[in-house]
């Protein structure tokens, strides 16, 4: 079986995000970018399935700017077998929306015929949490989102999902789409020798036009703003003082 | 807050040193700047995720020696170093022929800076092992490489360097560890070693099963005496676990950790008294005496070990630079956040201002910035010399790089160690009372950094190495070539926005040249050596001022570069003349004062 893993290049989780002065979005110029952490978990899970002999080939796909090939190299260095880059934007500030991504992935899936798609539950830049679900709808495949545990049993996958208030285990028919949650696994570091070897692994480059998908935005960003800064705290001398301050502030 | 600032590191590595140009050399053919960045990304992640979180916990829970004679490290240190080895970082600069990635030392040094900034003590394990394995690869026989370097490359063993003894630290000629011939096998000439090695970093550890010690010892004469001086020193490979070929087969060697030293800082790594040949716990082949295999020829020990020491010396400077850098970043952040006092120009201002508004605090930030960036630049520049000395296209280029590397090694070891500590002192100062507490990081940076002027040859020993061997020894030729480049940079600065930097740089270069001349020409060769440490500091200041200027002149350099260079020129460079004056005047106060006057 073949597994397809979509990976997104996003602002690094360690970077202190700054909103652009005109409020049109987040400043991404000269900012450190890396693989979406949920996608890293998906790559790790795919590699583990391969190591366990359940999967023959892991194919990573990224959609975005040309620099996303660095992200694909990371996936290859972790252990993916080959990669497909779909260049869909020139400007790092242009985000490709979930629907366009899902449509492109659907086309890739038509060609590649994987038995399983493992994707991150959401990307940490826009927190959309939509691509996997949309892809499922487009393909008419089953879906199991927010996976905490994945087991492949013949032509079914048994997936434990993180849901409000606990865990839920579902059995879905393959081919299927599974999205990964934080606790599914702890991704490995791509080792230095594997980083160097990954250069020799195949990386196909395509464009959105090759698949005939329109990636023009359908959503309009009205405004992007920093969260309000926290006000400085204040020391109080007694419980009475605290209560009266809280009353003053109108919160009790 | 991250331990390193990648933008600064990338600027130095790519924009200033042009690391990607190294790919034009045959050794690095096929590599690219992307490879180097991916390597640095990995090092940075390991630094942040593995090494940094265990930095503080492993400071308060030192390594312990169990009743079973085994050393137990803080588990976080164990995991961090394990992650480093699993990620194959120890292979970065190793030859492809030995399974390595053959990346430039320049880039390997930048990656190590990230690890060191996060956890200097834990970084000691891979740092020592890499230098150890490189010595074996360079001087060992193929069988020695397979038995003793390969396990280190594969992450199954770590390496140490065993030079110092309780009675012989600075003066290695006086070591008394003894080696008796004990046959030969496919790994070479075998010896039984007995003696005590003091201060051995990483000698006891529970990260990898095996530890490969590189041990300096003296082969005893037929009459049982030991040869005198450094020419009598030989080098031996002494593994903790013996290979199959040893008499009695595989099993533990006759080594014992006799005690641990309790250090001021740098606590994540064990520091051990290592006894060889006690014969109490283990007697390989039924006899007392640690089994070791000779590397190279008898009497070559110190010369060979110098390769490891020189690499380790650059790394000591690098560690000191990394700690200075982290202290600078922490105190800069703090100064922008903490509000205290009113500005000088408006003493009645209604509200306190951030510390960074006070000129004295700004002084401390700029001074730290210049030291941290200057020290880091010095280490990366020296690392590139090591690459060029080994791999440059022509023999002439290689020998030029070699001469410069030789000249600068004592400076690269000691300047960051001495002044990085001054930077950490200022990082504490900017934090005020908070900086003195263990709730903040800067006091530990200072304690960790305090080791660096001591190990791998104290500052005093580095001063002697520079002035006696490298200046007076070669008549000042290597220094003259260096100062020619310093002056060329001053000329370039004079033509642009760095014009204000040029005269000071020229003056300082002139003062250094003059002092070197008076030292070389002095009637009494001892007098100048009494000023060797001052000369070392002065030389370091000139070199750092030069590098700061050179970086500031890079097209598109961040403007902070020029300000750091200016501050260093204005406030630090004048010290050069003061340091050198006593040598020029032939001051003998320290020499002639009677002991009772001390
Ligand atoms: C934490 C730590 C880790 C270490 N790790 C290792 C290790 O892994 N392997 C190893 O082999 N060693 C190691 N060392 C040993 C270290 O290299 C020595 O401590 C150092 O070389 C100084 O030797 P010493 O301590 O005997 O001091 P001394 O040699 O007694 O020196 C004391 C002082 O006298 C000065 N002095 C001595 N001789 C002269 C001279 N001829 N001229 C001018 N001044 C002189 C020195 O500069 C110094 O200021 C380590 C030391 C420490 C503290
Ligand atoms: C161990 C310890 C014991 C102490 N014991 C006592 C005690 O018994 N009683 C007591 O009352 N206090 C005590 N203190 C407090 C001590 O006096 C203060 O820590 C000290 O005055 C500095 O204040 P701060 O820590 O708030 O630093 P800050 O005032 O925040 O200073 C931080 C840095 O900014 C600089 N700075 C601040 N304002 C200016 C300015 N206007 N111009 C230029 N530079 C400026 C400072 O020089 C310093 O480098 C103690 C502190 C310590 C650490």
Automatic annotation (TrEMBL), chain A:
<dbReference type="InterPro" id="IPR012255">
    <property type="entry name" value="ETF_b"/>
</dbReference>
<dbReference type="InterPro" id="IPR014729">
    <property type="entry name" value="Rossmann-like_a/b/a_fold"/>
</dbReference>
<feature type="domain" description="Electron transfer flavoprotein alpha/beta-subunit N-terminal">
    <location>
        <begin position="23"/>
        <end position="215"/>
    </location>
</feature>
<dbReference type="InterPro" id="IPR033948">
    <property type="entry name" value="ETF_beta_N"/>
</dbReference>
<comment type="similarity">
    <text>Belongs to the ETF beta-subunit/FixA family.</text>
</comment>
<protein>
    <recommendedName>
        <fullName>Electron transfer flavoprotein subunit beta</fullName>
    </recommendedName>
</protein>
<keyword id="KW-0813">Transport</keyword>
<comment type="subunit">
    <text>Heterodimer of an alpha and a beta subunit.</text>
</comment>
<dbReference type="InterPro" id="IPR000049">
    <property type="entry name" value="ET-Flavoprotein_bsu_CS"/>
</dbReference>
<dbReference type="GO" id="GO:0009055">
    <property type="term" value="F:electron transfer activity"/>
</dbReference>
<comment type="function">
    <text>The electron transfer flavoprotein serves as a specific electron acceptor for other dehydrogenases. It transfers the electrons to the main respiratory chain via ETF-ubiquinone oxidoreductase (ETF dehydrogenase).</text>
</comment>
<dbReference type="Pfam" id="PF01012">
    <property type="entry name" value="ETF"/>
</dbReference>
<dbReference type="GO" id="GO:0046395">
    <property type="term" value="P:carboxylic acid catabolic process"/>
</dbReference>
<keyword id="KW-0249">Electron transport</keyword>
<dbReference type="InterPro" id="IPR014730">
    <property type="entry name" value="ETF_a/b_N"/>
</dbReference>
From TrEMBL, chain B:
<dbReference type="Pfam" id="PF00441">
    <property type="entry name" value="Acyl-CoA_dh_1"/>
</dbReference>
<dbReference type="InterPro" id="IPR009075">
    <property type="entry name" value="AcylCo_DH/oxidase_C"/>
</dbReference>
<dbReference type="InterPro" id="IPR006091">
    <property type="entry name" value="Acyl-CoA_Oxase/DH_mid-dom"/>
</dbReference>
<protein>
    <submittedName>
        <fullName>Acyl-CoA dehydrogenase</fullName>
    </submittedName>
</protein>
<dbReference type="InterPro" id="IPR009100">
    <property type="entry name" value="AcylCoA_DH/oxidase_NM_dom_sf"/>
</dbReference>
<feature type="domain" description="Acyl-CoA oxidase/dehydrogenase middle">
    <location>
        <begin position="161"/>
        <end position="273"/>
    </location>
</feature>
<dbReference type="Pfam" id="PF12806">
    <property type="entry name" value="Acyl-CoA_dh_C"/>
</dbReference>
<keyword id="KW-0285">Flavoprotein</keyword>
<keyword id="KW-0560">Oxidoreductase</keyword>
<feature type="domain" description="Acetyl-CoA dehydrogenase-like C-terminal">
    <location>
        <begin position="482"/>
        <end position="593"/>
    </location>
</feature>
<dbReference type="GO" id="GO:0016627">
    <property type="term" value="F:oxidoreductase activity, acting on the CH-CH group of donors"/>
</dbReference>
<dbReference type="GO" id="GO:0050660">
    <property type="term" value="F:flavin adenine dinucleotide binding"/>
</dbReference>
<keyword id="KW-0274">FAD</keyword>
<comment type="similarity">
    <text>Belongs to the acyl-CoA dehydrogenase family.</text>
</comment>
<dbReference type="InterPro" id="IPR037069">
    <property type="entry name" value="AcylCoA_DH/ox_N_sf"/>
</dbReference>
<dbReference type="InterPro" id="IPR052166">
    <property type="entry name" value="Diverse_Acyl-CoA_DH"/>
</dbReference>
<dbReference type="InterPro" id="IPR036250">
    <property type="entry name" value="AcylCo_DH-like_C"/>
</dbReference>
<feature type="domain" description="Acyl-CoA dehydrogenase/oxidase C-terminal">
    <location>
        <begin position="299"/>
        <end position="469"/>
    </location>
</feature>
<dbReference type="InterPro" id="IPR046373">
    <property type="entry name" value="Acyl-CoA_Oxase/DH_mid-dom_sf"/>
</dbReference>
<dbReference type="InterPro" id="IPR025878">
    <property type="entry name" value="Acyl-CoA_dh-like_C_dom"/>
</dbReference>
<dbReference type="Pfam" id="PF02770">
    <property type="entry name" value="Acyl-CoA_dh_M"/>
</dbReference>
């Amino acid at each position: 079986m073949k597994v397809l893993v979509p990976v997104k290049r996003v602002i690094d989780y360690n970077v202190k995000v700054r909103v652009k002065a005109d409020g049109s979005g987040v400043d991404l110029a000269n900012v450190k970018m890396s693989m979406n952490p949920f996608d890293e978990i998906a790559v790790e899970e795919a590699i583990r399935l391969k190591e366990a002999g359940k999967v023959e080939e892991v194919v990573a796909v990224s959609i975005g700017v040309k620099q996303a090939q660095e992200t694909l190299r990371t996936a290859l260095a972790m252990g993916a077998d080959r990669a497909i880059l779909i260049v869909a934007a020139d400007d790092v500030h242009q985000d490709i929306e979930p629907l366009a991504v899902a449509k492109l992935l659907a086309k890739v899936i038509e060609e590649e015929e994987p038995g399983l798609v493992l994707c991150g539950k959401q990307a940490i830049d826009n927190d959309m949490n939509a691509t996997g679900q949309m892809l499922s709808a487009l393909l008419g495949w089953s879906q199991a989102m927010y996976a905490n545990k994945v087991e492949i049993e013949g032509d079914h996958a048994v997936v434990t999902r993180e849901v409000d208030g606990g865990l839920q285990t579902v059995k879905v028919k393959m081919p299927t789409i599974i999205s990964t949650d934080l606790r599914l696994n702890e991704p490995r570091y791509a080792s230095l020798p594997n980083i160097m070897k990954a250069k020799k692994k195949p990386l196909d480059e395509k464009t959105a036009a090759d698949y005939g998908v329109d990636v023009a935005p359908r959503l309009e960003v009205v405004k992007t703003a920093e969260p309000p800064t926290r006000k400085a705290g204040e020391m109080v001398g007694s419980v009475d003082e605290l209560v009266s301050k809280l009353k003053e502030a109108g919160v009790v | 807050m991250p331990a390193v600032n990648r933008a600064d590191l990338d600027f130095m590595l790519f924009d200033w040193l042009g690391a990607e140009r190294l790919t034009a050399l045959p050794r690095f053919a096929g590599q690219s700047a992307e490879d180097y960045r991916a390597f640095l990304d990995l090092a940075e992640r390991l630094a942040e995720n593995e090494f940094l979180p265990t930095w503080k916990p492993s400071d308060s829970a030192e390594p312990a020696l169990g009743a079973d004679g085994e050393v137990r490290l803080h588990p976080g240190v164990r995991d961090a170093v394990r992650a480093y080895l699993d990620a194959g970082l120890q292979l970065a600069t190793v030859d492809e022929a030995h399974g390595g990635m053959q990346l430039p030392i320049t880039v390997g040094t930048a990656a190590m800076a990230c690890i060191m900034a996060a956890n200097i003590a834990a970084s000691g394990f891979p740092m020592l092992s890499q230098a150890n394995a490189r010595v074996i690869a360079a001087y060992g026989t193929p069988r020695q490489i397979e038995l003793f370097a390969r396990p280190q490359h594969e992450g199954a063993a770590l390496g140490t360097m065993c030079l110092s003894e309780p009675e012989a630290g600075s003066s290695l000629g006086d070591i008394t560890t003894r080696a008796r011939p004990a046959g030969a096998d496919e790994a070479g000439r075998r010896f039984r070693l007995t003696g005590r090695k003091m201060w051995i970093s990483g000698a006891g550890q529970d990260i990898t099963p095996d530890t490969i010690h590189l041990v300096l010892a003296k082969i005893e004469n037929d009459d049982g005496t030991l040869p005198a001086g450094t020419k009598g020193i030989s080098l031996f490979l002494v593994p903790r676990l013996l290979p199959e070929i040893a008499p009695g087969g595989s099993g533990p060697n006759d080594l014992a950790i006799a005690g641990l030293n309790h250090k001021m800082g740098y606590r994540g790594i064990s520091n051990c008294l290592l006894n060889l040949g006690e014969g109490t716990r283990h007697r390989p082949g039924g006899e007392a005496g640690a089994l070791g295999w000779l590397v190279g020829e008898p009497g070559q020990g110190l010369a060979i070990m110098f390769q490891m020491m020189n690499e380790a010396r650059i790394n000591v400077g690098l560690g000191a630079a990394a700690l200075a850098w982290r202290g600078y970043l922490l105190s800069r952040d703090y100064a922008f956040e903490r509000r205290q006092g009113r500005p000088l120009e408006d003493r009645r201002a209604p509200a306190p201002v951030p510390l960074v508004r006070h000129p004295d605090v700004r002084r401390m930030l700029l001074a730290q910035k210049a030291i941290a960036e200057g020290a880091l630049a010095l280490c990366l520049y020296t690392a590139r010399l090591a690459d060029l000395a080994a791999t440059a296209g022509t023999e002439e280029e290689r020998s030029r790089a070699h001469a410069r590397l030789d000249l600068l090694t004592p400076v690269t070891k000691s300047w960051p160690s001495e002044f990085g500590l001054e930077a950490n002192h200022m990082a504490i100062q900017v934090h005020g009372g908070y900086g003195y507490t263990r709730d903040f990081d800067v006091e530990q940076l200072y304690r960790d950094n305090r080791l660096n002027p001591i190990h791998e040859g104290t500052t005093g020993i580095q001063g002697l190495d520079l002035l006696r061997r490298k200046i007076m020894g070669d008549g000042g030729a290597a220094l003259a070539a260096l100062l020619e480049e310093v002056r060329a940079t001053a000329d370039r600065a004079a033509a642009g926005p760095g014009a204000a930097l040029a005269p000071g740089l020229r003056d300082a270069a002139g003062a250094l040249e003059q002092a070197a001349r008076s030292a070389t020409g002095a009637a009494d060769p001892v007098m100048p050596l009494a000023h060797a440490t001052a000369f070392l500091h002065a030389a370091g200041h000139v070199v750092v001022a030069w590098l700061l200027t050179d970086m500031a002149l890079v097209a598109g350099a961040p403007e902070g570069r020029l300000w750091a260079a200016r501050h260093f020129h204005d406030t630090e460079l004048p010290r050069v003349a003061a340091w050198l004056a006593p040598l020029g005047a032939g001051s003998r106060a320290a020499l002639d004062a009677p002991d009772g006057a001390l």
